[in-house]
Every structure is written in structure tokens, then in C-alpha cells.
Batch of 3 targets.
Target 1
Amino acid sequence: MVNVRVRLIGVLRNLAGRDSLEVEVQEDRTIAVVVKKLIDLVGRTEFEAAIVDRELNDPTPNTLIIVNNKDISALNGLKTQLEDNDEIVLIPISHGG
């Protein structure tokens, strides 16, 4: 079991009603599992919609995910394994046209 701290930036902070949360992960200690648990903890469909691209069922098009100051694209993506006390930062990506 690991405990990680998730910091929320911008609109994500507003939708969650707080700037950070502690998330406990049991067996599969990946970013994908933490994102799912985070969505469950917040419990707001608006929060989930802001993070996860509905068509792809993937958070990476909408959210920059950083673990210990490294973008997960430079690590192992959503399969990045987490250690106790890791810090994850979620930053919403604005799309415009």
C-alpha cells in the first residue's frame, strides 16, 4: 500500500473544492488507478469530465499529469508505478480553436 499526494491546479481545484488530496492505493499502484480513485473521492461528474476525455476514456488529452516534477509522458505514462509519498500534480489543458 502507498499513499500519494495529489495537487490540483486551476479549474480542477475549483471543481474538487480543495487544492490537494491524499490517495491511498493498495495493489496496482499506477497513475491510472490513482486517477480513478481521485474521481471517486471527489464524486462530481464535472470533475471527471474535466479530467477524462470521454471519447478516448483517457485523462492525458485533457490533463497534464506530473509525478515528482516529471511529466508522465517521460516516464511510463498511465502505467507509471508509484511509491509511497510521491506527489502527483494535475494541470488542466485548455483547448481552443
Target 2
Amino acid sequence: MVLLSLDIDGTLAVGDPPGWIPIDWVERAHALGYIVGSASDRTMTDQRGLWERHGVEMDFVGHKHKPDEIRARFPDTTRWIHIGDGEADHLYAVKHGFEFYWVHEVPKDGSPGWIW
């Protein structure tokens, strides 16, 4: 099972500043059976509010500096991915065993090993 963790600001189209990953990625990942959520430096209340305003149900919200807590909630997961735009995203994701992709370097659909 794949867990996809997304930073918000600078990564998602609904972030501040906006990134280039559209909301429909969440829907696409859910349709494939992935666990999808956000890991941001925003408060969890703010993250939940953002998703509610956009009518998106997430499997988790968490803090980018605590990906170990996200991993612990989903012990049956076999692949952990985090996409972000900052050094903190990169540092904490890699430190806790997540694959990390810079938002501006996400592989193209169909690339070997990519999630779609």
C-alpha cells in the first residue's frame, strides 16, 4: 500500500503561495487505493479547514517535521512518499524513510517507479 504525503504551501495549487500539484491528484490517489494526506508546518486545524473548504477528504493531516508519527498510524503501508518544496520537507522525509520528491521535479506519469 502506498502513502502519499503532500506539503501544502508552495506545493499544492491551493497553497499560499500556490504550487503546481492540483487537488485532483488527491482524488486520483484515493481512486488507486492510496492513503493520502498533508504534512505541513500549518496547524492540523488549519489543514483540516483547508481540506473541508475544498471538499476533499484526507486520510491524515500531520506535521512535516513528524513523519514518524504518520508512519506509525499506517503500519501496513509498504511505500511512503512525501512531495514538498522546502529543505524541511526533504530533511524530515528522508530522515524517516520516506521517498522524497521536490515539487518541481516530480517524475512524469508512467516513469519507472512513479506512483501513477
Target 3
Amino acid sequence: GDVVVDLARDLQSKDGEKEIDLLVTIDSFGFNNDIIPENVVNNINFIGGSDVLFNDGGNMAKNPELTKVENVLVDDVAHEDLPDEWDLQERVISEIYKLL
């Protein structure tokens, strides 16, 4: 999650703003990645519900008028197990299809 938020920031600042329709973060836990930049239209952030150590809180939009942020708590799943969750994968694929 940290890397894609940094990439979104880079795309905002390089040669004019590059819009990102969907940014999916999976339990990102860095201290500088909670604020989603204005060039992101939608951010879905999946948070593991069983690992309190890795959870520093949900994401928020720098500008809520431009960016919709949805924080989804996945109960009883540890941080490192989130990418293997079928429900999470199906949700991401569904959101991608909506954009196509």
C-alpha cells in the first residue's frame, strides 16, 4: 500500500496531474501513506482486523470532494494473509470491471 500511494503522489506531481480511477491499498501501515492525493478518484483500503500492531488507522482523502475513500475492515484476518482472501480479490476484480 505504501508504494502505490507514493506512486499516486508521483503521478500527481510529474508533468501535470495524472488521474487514477481506482487505487487499492491492502492494509498499508506506513506513517506517510494515510492521506490519499487529489488525483485519485476512488481508494479502497482493506484493513486486517486481527493485527493491531500493523494498523495505524484508515486512509483519508486529501480533498473529499475529489476522492472517495472506503476503508474496509476484514475481520479475523492478519495483515500478511489479506492478499489471499477470496472475498477481497473478488471485490477488487468487481471494481476493475466497473471501470471498464
